[in-house]
């Protein structure tokens, strides 16, 4: 199960809309939609807010973290740590993309406000 699928599952379990969750964690609905659709990865700084809003623990959202803690094989542990580093790197890169999308959304919103006020 992907992270996006888990996000959707627990959001729907609480009967919250994507917009509601996005507002509660402080991101745009588009950003949150992209996380659920696995089009982009969430920034690390939002994980605490997400698990709090969805009423789950971080191991439920990101089970790879838990498997790293319980793994006995050192080779497997190194491989999992490398995968975690890769995921964190991908998340950092995608956070840049999220920021660009956020700024585009904000820019469009401001343009619409200006157009309505004219």
Brief synopsis:
This protein is mainly alpha-helical. The chain has helices at residues 3-13, 18-25, 29-36, 47-54, 58-61, 63-70, 74-117.
Describe it.
The chain has helices at 3-13, 18-25, 29-36, 47-54, 58-61, 63-70, 74-117. The protein has one domain (3-117): 434 Repressor (Amino-terminal Domain). Helices cover 77% and strands 0% of the residues. It is an all-alpha fold and 118 residues long. The protein starts with a helix and ends with a helix. The protein has seven helices and no strands.
Counting DSSP H or I runs of 4 or more residues, the number of helices is 7
Class per helix and strand makeup: mainly alpha
Low-confidence stretches: none
Beta strand count: 0
Q: What number of structural domains do the residues give?
A: 1
Measured by DSSP, the beta-strand proportion falls in under 5%
- Biggest sheet, in brief? none
Q: Architecture, according to CATH?
A: Orthogonal Bundle
Name given to the CATH homologous superfamily: lambda repressor-like DNA-binding domains
Radius of gyration: 17 Å
Approximate shape:
globular
User: Might you state the CATH topology name?
Assistant: 434 Repressor (Amino-terminal Domain)
Q: Roughly what percent helix? A: over 70%
Distance between the termini: 48 Å
**Quaternary structure state of the chains depicted:** single chain
- Spell out the helices and strands N to C: HHHHHHH
Compute the average pLDDT: 82
